Amino acid sequence: MAEFSLALNDDQIQLRDWVHEFAKDVIRPAAEEWDEREEFPWPIVEEAAKIGLYGMDFMANAMLADATGLTLPVAIEEMFWGDAGIGLSIMGSGLAAAGIAGNGTPEQLMEWVPQCYGTADDVKLGAFCVSEPDAGSDVSSLRTRAVYDEAKDEWTLNGTKAWITNGGIANVHVVVAAVDPELRGRGQASFIVPPNTPGLSMGQKYKKHGIRASHTSEVVLDDVKVPGSCLLGGKEKLDEKLARAREALTKPQVESSGKQPAMATFEATRPAVGAQAIGVARAAYEYALEYAGERQAFGKPIIMNQAIAFMLADMITEIDAARLLVHRAAWLSRNGTYVNAEGSMSKLKAGRVAVWVTERAIQILGGYGYTREYPVERMHRDAKIFDIFEGTEQIQQLVIGRAISGRRIE
Question: 30 CB contacts (<8 Å, ≥6 apart)?
Fold first, then answer.
């Protein structure tokens, strides 16, 4: 176990600077174009793959080879400092990879995670499919059903997934489905849907308020057949989990162990989502700071007015506080365990800070900040998603409330 420290080592500082240069030279100049086009930025992702920023090796080194847990959030912050929509296009496959790593066997991880990324010359995508039109925050109510045919050792998946990053355009889809609906969240499992599997198609593509360069759509599953080997974790492990859950229904004193597949993935990724929010907030703060030092009003730079200087002081204070929570959560995730839902704390705080800081940045720029000629307008639109996806603000409060009270708060 690494000693607790939030100081970055030389390798992390070098990585931070490397990603920052890519964000400054490649991502940020393209941000406005891809936001307006509302299309997946293939050329930027391919460029990221060529330099090694997009791919299994980068994710493995950032996550598995890092004893501190800080490498990935440090890199993500810089990427999203460049642009949130493009940043999410680069990082979106990581959620599918996390779903495989969190629920699959070592053999499944080695087989499928590389296929979520492809190679520098042949880029692939992954998608993690949980949410549904009637089941967003309440993932225990998923209607997508997986039915097993023992004679064929084959699963059939039917349902519609909603709000899926890379949905329909991904090569590998990781789908969470109910195998025993009566058990609700305890009766779910995760499945790999391999490339070009018949029956999987893209539904509507969403036209979003922000992160518009990131592809988000429905995924329709119509009698999708996948072999038994595509059940993450394997049939034996699933049967054991279902047996415990059924016993818990008949004998309340028996604890039903095991986490929901979706929740296991989200818990692992919340500090990373917090880092994304911090990147957006920092970008807006830095732009507003520079603008305030150059913009003249009443014969002096507007930063000379306390009203502006105090806003900026509060902005950087909130950003630094959120970053400390994210880094603490990332360290705990790698080296210990969450005690009071620190992962949710970090995501809750960072999301709120991103929305508030970007709104303050618009205020500092005044009317200019409200126009698309200046990037803080886009940053503000992008920031709002961090209060919503991978667990809304209220879901984070619920998780924290349950952790600190030890009670089943509804």
Answer: 41, 43, 44, 83, 86
62 with 76: CB under 8 angstroms? no
* Bridge pairing between strands 145-149 and 154-165: antiparallel
**Distance of alpha carbon 212 from alpha carbon 34, whole angstroms:** 7
Q: Are 217 and 203 in contact (CB under 8 A)?
A: yes
**Which residue among the candidates 247, 390, 393, 410 is catalytic per the annotation?**
390
DSSP string of 127-193? EEE--BTTBSS-GGG---EEEEETTTTEEEEEEEEEEEETTTT-SEEEEEEESSGGGGGGGEEEEEE
Q: How does pLDDT run across 289-342, given as a tens digit for each residue? A: 999 999 999 999 999 999 999 999 999 999 999 999 999 999 998 888 888 899
Q: List the domains of the chain with CATH numbers.
A: 10-116 (1.10.540.10), 126-250 (2.40.110.10), 261-405 (1.20.140.10)
Q: Does 390 participate in catalysis according to the annotation?
A: yes
Element (H, E) at 296: strand 296-297
Q: What is the pLDDT of residues 96-139, one digit of tens each?
A: 999 999 899 999 999 999 999 999 999 999 999 999 998 766 67
- Spatial distance between the Cα atoms of 76 and 264, rounded to a whole number of angstroms: 21
- C-alpha span between 328 and 344 (Å, rounded): 12
Q: What is the three-class DSSP state of 123?
A: strand
Q: Tell me the backbone φ, ψ of residue 157, rounded to 5 degrees.
A: -110, 135
